[in-house]
Amino acid sequence: MVRLSGSQAHTIAQQITGRPAGHAALLQFCALTDPRDGLTIDRGYVVFFKAPRSFTGQDVAELQVHGSPAVTDKLIDACVALGARLAEPGEFTWRAFEAGKLDLVQVEALADLIAAQSETQRLTALQQLDGGLSAQIAKLRAPLLAALAQVEARLDFAAEPHLAHLDPAPLLADLAELHTKMIELAGTAQAGQVRLRGARVVLFGAPNAGKSTLLNALVGLDRALVDPRPGTTRDTLEVQTAPQGVLITWIDTAGVREAEDPVERAGTARAQSEVERADVVLWCRSANSKDSDDLPVPRTQAVLLQVATKTDLGAGPPEQIAVAAPGGAGVGALRDHVVAVVRELARGPRSAEVVISRERHRHALIAAAAGLERARAGLANGLELELVAADLHDAADELGEMLGTFATDAVLGAIFSSFCIGK
Amino acid sequence: MASSINLAYPGPWRAIVVGGGHAGCEAALCLARGGVEVLLLTQNVDRIGWMSCNPSIGGVGKSHLVAEVDALGGEMAANADRAGVQYKWLNESRGAAVQALRVQCDKLAYATAMRQVLETTPGLHIKQGNAAQLWLDNGQLRGVIAEPGIAFAAEAVVLTAGTFLGGVLHTGLRQQAGGRAGDAPSLGLGDQLRALGVATLRHKTGTCPRVDLRSVDWDKLAPDLGVQPPPPMSRRSKRVALPQMACHMAYTNAKTHELIRQGLDRSPLFTGVIAGTGPRYCPSIEDKVVRFAHHERHYLFLEREGWQTGEVYVSGLSTSLPADVQIQVVRSIEGMERAEIVRFGYAVEYDAIDARQLGHDLGLPALPGLYLAGQVNGTSGYEEAAAQGLVAGLAALRRLRGEAPVTFARGQSYIGVMVDDLITQGAAEPYRMFTSRAEHRLELRCSNADQRLTPLGRELGLVGDAQWQTFQERQSQFARARRVLHETIVRPTPENLAHIATWDAGGLGTPSTLAQLLCRPPANWTALNPWLPQDLQDHAVDADAQAELTTEVRYAGYIERERSRQARSERHEYLKIPHELDYTAVGGLSAECLQKLQQVRPATLGQAARIPGMTPAAVQALAFALRTRRGLPKLP
User: Fold this and answer.
1) The domain spanning residue B565 has which CATH number?
2) Is residue B597 part of a domain?
3) Tens digit of pLDDT for each residue in B276-293?
4) Residues of A whose CB is below 8 A from B612
5) What are phi and psi of A127, to 5 degrees?
């Protein structure tokens, strides 16, 4: 499909298709002709969209042809000859943003939607594109602007006797509630990440615990080099699969031990850093060896699953999931278990209607919450109101930036609509 | 036009200021003090420096402008100290940056004192005459033609027409032409400006009835004496000149509101007779009663207009209701049952120019040498007018001295905020300063206006020797105090702990600087006495300086955050947009943004970002174009 957007989009498409632009959003069958030589390029369809009721907010025409490079090249060539130019990457989205059709969060969601590989990814991105997240941010921002209006009115209209006093109690309650909501939304980041980018499942343990063998069994491929000698895996290895439609990145790591060899030590450090950013850690310990016994419990925020490997050679403790990778015993059960855990992670906190999926959003929410907390503490401790205002502005700006908008006019508007001011 | 000239009046002036209001006075003083002879042409010399509406100078946001004008060598604050009869601190507990002084003045004393300043300033000439039109010659500005055909030549003209362009006064459904009650409007100038392609707006403002002092039952009203002793508004004033007086508070009531509602059918505001846009923050009483119907009462302040007059200003009762309604409304108020109105309240509708056509120097690019300042630019308030008068006067001065224009940045002053707001966003309604308009509010304090601007004022030749010397003395004291605060370390010795225990139970864990001690809430300057050298102890440093130094220390962290917040959103604040930029070649701009950019022609990217309706994406597109020089002529 070739899409034209801009003031001349309709004129150019009309010259090629001979169809009227009046029938907006209607699929019209047509012959597509190069007006320079009058020869037909292809037969296909044209759809016209009238500004502002189009994706970009401009006049848009979409030309649908058979997808061969020869046809599309010729068609684009004809469009350019009639005054069009090739869009830069993301330019249609840019124009939609420019026209106010999408906010920043939605632009990001659109990128996610286009890149979606799994059903969960698609649904998450679509929900954000539909404005679910934007609406959630707006819902957080509105009471914040209302609080700011309360405070700003006291600062700018000091001569008004009826604005002389600000009762901090209700404001403090509002801010506390808002703070909780922000932290909650920020807390959905892992769920969002898991939905959009899949879960990172790290295999971790002592050398020769059988991690690489287990990885191969879990993904059903001979991806990792395996050998009975300890220390075969020197670097991390990632394999992505989607068992039961759940996107998982399996990460094999080098075995962890006190090592002299600098390469092996670097491998250990990498393993540690993988564990820190993991969603699930499979803590692998060989059932027939005592090597792992003095290793400390991995330091991680992730879900920790204890796995007893090589159970064909001996029995592991009962709290561990038993696998005997080469023969495949227990591997299917482990995979199912991981899938169930990842599904749970993707579901997120129970109260979350909408999840965030980007670091940018999480940072903004955390920063906004911090500003809010400073404002709350300042208000509670009787700090000067202008400092409380500064902290509230910090918080509001963070949320505004998330959507790509800013506050000042909105604050003044809120003041005027809710207070009687005048001398 | 030249044919209407009867007399070309010769004179030594190179600049003319049209109008003797608050903008005109500052503009003329700035020019004369800067060494350029100037003619102040006013319709009525008895109205120089006249307070046409309320008798007060200052207030939140406004006093910030006044302090800045003062720091730059302007006259408003010093003149308020010559005429001030009641001083009031606003926002005393809400923080150093929003704290403000409001000075109720003796109206006649204010005008007389200002006139005296003008009349004793060398190089400042005053003439009475109604400026009928600009004197143009082949599209070039040559001066001003006053009625009846007297032409005054000048290379620069500062137009401060106030509410006089096409002014119409309304009381009830009766109208009469006028710029102010008792003064004729200016009719030709507005038409001429429009003929030159200048877009104008229709604004509205109003004033309250004045009542006779003898007809008010003062015993029934609560008095407010103001601050004693009154703190001078200007850093140049040694003291406040006049004896102080009280103002009194009164309230409207249900009966007042009922009377107002009954009169609405004869209100020019509510019958659609007035088309101009009024200020939301300074509504008429009828506006307040209608918009805030659930309010049981609205408060009023009764302010006597001066020691030599018995007229009392009823603040809060601005109205254009018919005379008979005004009488009943006034008499419905407790304490005013037998009040006699001396002058009725009225609304005035007038032309303001769309300030988006002006540059940062308040000059009109279409007519080099012409500057506009004050209410004619769509603002309201004496303080906003005075600050613009100074900006325009300074711009004319720089032009005549062959110097580059000066731009006031938003991060540096409220003056900068106001000018940028006006020329970027225009004034859809009369523009008043608020502290919330300033992104750098915590830094832009009344108390540090001198530190922000007096060096600039000195450099520009506006700050006199006496003011400069006072400033330098204060600065050297500040510099020494800052050094001592940051370099003196207090260790937790028994002796030090005993001192600290007198004001803070918290003790002292680790060695701290005096600055760190000062940040602990109960601490004040006096608490630092044990560690301060003699000349910096509380008895040797004035309260003003103590407060300012304390604020500097306590606000440092907040100001840092404020700056970084601004730096993020204004990364490109000062990225200049060349005048020759072809916006159509920028790409990625919606038709709406394109039109706005072409109309405003912002000087910097920051200014572009503040144009109402500009989307973040458009600003990004512009930033990108500037980096890649898209839409600009090829570099040689």
Assistant:
1) 1.10.10.1800
2) yes
3) 888 777 789 999 999 888
4) 409
5) -60, -40
